[in-house]
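Exercise: predict the fold of this chain.
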Amino acid sequence: MRILLIADEEAPYLWDYYQPGRLDNIDFILSCGDLKQEYLEFLLTMSCRPLYYVCGNHDKGYVNFPPEGCEPLDDRLVTVNGLRILGLGGCIRYNPGPFQYTEKEMQTRVRRLQRAIRRAGGVDIVVTHAPPRGYGDAEDNAHRGFEAFLTLMDAWKPRYLLHGHVHQSYGHNLPRQIQYGDTTVMNCVGWQILEIDAPPPCPPQGFLARLRSRLHG
């Protein structure tokens, strides 16, 4: 399975200088935020593939004019081609702007998703805008990561956490990928392709509980 990952910077290769066929071999698109609505709509139209997005701290235009045809992922868990994908957009609060959260507020958002994760039997990909604290973030107020994401990875061990927000072009000389336990943390600023196998089907937690009851009843 091939997933187009995008964040923060509109890629001329995929927009200004786009050529037909460049998106033929992808299965769907994941956006980590801070991209123009028109860019998401263009990629959706040219690829004819589903596009899922979280909001970045510069996406205030999404409030009244969300990208048409694209699926919001914030505070949701969806299953796409067998992959369980969770969305938590926004960054650490550093001014009165939109889509910014304190550490406590992000912890609350994570807790509210626990039931959905349990029902799905886990999570494969976490899509965020900001990185986890200490793994791909920076020390200035606007680009610090969330400790809540470390807690999420410790508990559920997703295969990937995808984020944007920290631009290498701003002088943040950070690797594109960092390993945190069982999770690969990827900075998706610009664009890249993720190749990943779909997991085997997992029965829902309610079904497993009933099966155990019958076996041990």
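Check your answer against the key: The two ends are 41 Å apart (CA to CA).
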